[in-house]
Amino acid sequence: MDSNERKKCMEEVSFEDFTKELKKEYEYQKNGGTSYRLSSSSLALVTAIETNSVKAFLDKDVAKQTVSYLLPTISNEKVEDVAKLLNMIAKDMHRKKNLPKEVQEYVQRKREKQKPLSLKNHKSNNSR
Question: Region Disordered: which residues (predicted)?
Answer without folding.
Answer: 97-128
